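In response to a reviewer's request, we include the raw inputs and outputs for one of the modeled complexes. The three entities were modeled together in a single run.
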Amino acid sequence: MTETVLQLRELKKWFPISGGVLGRVRGYVRAIDGVDLEIKEGETFGLVGESGSGKTTVGRCILRLIEPTAGQIVYRGQNITKLKSEALRRIRRKFGVVFQDPYASLDPRQTIKSALTEPMKYHRIVGSDEEAVERAKDLIKRVGLNEDHLYRFPHEFSGGQRQRIAVARALTTDPDFIVLDEPTSFLDVSVQAQILNLLSDLQKELNLTYLFISHNLSVIEHMSNRVGVMYLGALMEAADKDIVYRKPEHPYTHALISALPIPNPALERERVVLAGDIPSPVNIPSGCRFRTRCPHANQYCTEKEPALIERQPGHPVSCHYDLKLSTPIPLAETVPKT
Amino acid sequence: MLTIIGADLVIGVLLGAFSGFIGGKFDEAMMRITDVFFSIPTLVLALAVAAALGRGLNNLVLAIIFVGWPGYTRLLRGQVLAEKERLYVDALRGLGIGRFRIIVRHIIPNTIYPVLVQATLDMGGIILTFAGLSFLGFGATALTPELGRLITAGQTYIFQAPWLVAFPGLTILIISLAFNLMGDGIRDVLDPRLRR
Amino acid sequence: MSKNEEVLLTVSNLKLNFHTYAGDVKALDGVSFRIKKGEALGLVGESGCGKSVTALAIVGLLPENASVIDGEIVLEGKNIIKVAHDEMRKIRANRIAMVFQDPTTFLNPVLTIGEQLEEVFLLNPERLARVATEGRIPEGLLEVKEEATHTKQDAFEAASAKLSGSQAKKVARELSIDVLKQVRLPDPERILKQYPHELSGGMRQRSMIAMALARNPDLFIADEITTALDVTIQAQILELLRELKKELLGSTLLITHDLGVVAELCDRVAVMYAGNIVEVAYVNELYANPLHPYTQGLMRAIPMIDRKMDRLETIPGSVPDLIYPPSGCRFHPRCPFAFEKCKLVKPELIDAGKNHSVACHLYGEGKP
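The model returned the following structure tokens for the whole complex.
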């Protein structure tokens, strides 16, 4: 049985909005509103969603860059939600992170060598400076760059190269769990492919577990083993990738997948186009939060919020009804070309 | 001169950086304290402190140091508030690096330029304050050759030998100007983005 | 020639440089393509390939440091690169409409949507007068072509010759509501009174499209208009554009880096790389049979949902510096099939059959 590396239980993050003359709290941005999920060792869990879904906030909560309002974050059985100082530092060694913006995620005044050796020395993973530099050289080569790149500054590199450096930096403390927050969104297609291949290779080589956050459905499909779909702060559905993309059970998942333009003009398929806009996380609809755009919603959906229930093992869905939806994307091989 | 600036910078920068980064009650307290300092004109405050401490060059230096740090604290705090939201700070925190190290090794180096530039501009002002207070009788005794003192000594003879006052005055002017220009230069040299 | 084959716009051998401190950026290196009447042409490429620059050249909105070195852009007989400023403005007002990726920079934040839309209509007073005198908004109101006058002043004067100021405003308001309905915006009367920041991203994008429609353009240029949108909102806009294409829009030039969007909306596709068009074909043909090594590489680098891919194939290297571009074929340093000729001679677009052109020495004479 593979071990569960990370588990989220009823995770909530509400941001208070203050306003008025006295600065009283007027309401809350319910960025995450009760999320449960589980990531197993060695797998890539893709977290997908549109604006306001809360997926980036989930990543930041796990890393404790922001403090959860409620709920628990459990790492290999240990509750890390409220850890502080030394204990938190020890856990952070096991986590790595790669952010979206390669131009902002490195200190512009720090050489690459310094950026890579600093975490090693800080956590006392190495005994001496020389050892740190050796490890840095090793890492920089592993991500496809040269040793002499260590002595340069971030602004001397392209976006793709900086992301490679960010990946190297994530690996400096020997982590086993890495949060990837839209790592390729700012990159061109051809560079994106290079980075994604690098991430796959490293995962196999080092038995890493990934939480891959992205709004790009194609990238998520390519990289993930399991996928979780978020909407307005809650998880609508989570399952193995093939099920999410071909046999989704939640109407939002279905609409999301079918909305994706596919670079295959010969492909015939049924498109679900949702009406209306995504509501603001300040004003989440009552009952089921998806009901304002759901083509199947009824009165009951307005009154009661559906619970996240496992319909099959490992396939939780948050919807009152079993809708028997069609396949949003048939596989190309099954469609005859014109 | 340099001691004064140096001391003020150290105090100001450290207080400002920690105040800005850590926030909370410490930050609140700092802001109220600096508010108090700002509400009293510098020269008057320096005068009061110098008077309290008594005569002597060292006391004068201490008085001016005491009066000068809040400016840097506020300036730096502003910079730090913006800087701590930057993505690389999140990356460092995610790596488990402690706040102290982040502030000292990353935030301060990245935010210090405006403060340094301000410091060189202030040099001129400090000299004037120093000269002014010396002129009034604080600080240097009649025997130590200090610019302000020179003016005091020379003012009795201003009509017979105006150069006794003019030259020290001119010197003060030139030194202030020089530091101002240096401030401009420092800004151009130290910004790493321009250094490309 | 059937109506479908009539050409609206021809770009011939367009060469364009940007003057910068670091040197001259040879942004466009002899770009040639045609847009036929009623068709949707996709212009596809990664960032820096010159697709947006091409569009700006067509619309006449190039920045100051750009200079056209060579080539022509011919719109129904006239080379619009050489026309005077004023005439270009007229053309922009009537014939070509461009919509950008970021509605916030396009829409004036201090005017309501209604004010901005009405302004477009008020610049065409003859149409307003006709609509008013006919007493109703005619079906297909957007069909008639008129020459617009230059300024609002002229417009008001002309309109007042036939209509009073307030009458003109009323008609303009009716037309505005109509065009908002055409972009499927709910509750158009309310939207007229709202400011851009009060609308969501998708609604702003629709407002921009409405403003373009209001001019009844012959050529509608859309520059990455869905890139900044959420997937489900993007689907709405794509759906809208598909319907509008059938109903109203003349020709469309759709600029994007997203091969999926192109497959959905376009009839023909032109692929750009480093300032050159490297391949042009009908959409089905291009996806089934990409000829240029860059196109092939691009398609293999993109994760595609509808097929199983183990590893993404990467194109080695990176996009070249256009201040010192590679000699001969600009793609040769990254091309797995490059041979001697590729370094020396720049390939021209040649016909490879089935209305499929490609600029590559692998095809045509002298192939290895």
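As requested, we also summarize the result in words. Chain C touches chain A through 46 residues (CB under 8 Å). The first strand of chain C starts at residue 7 and ends at 20.
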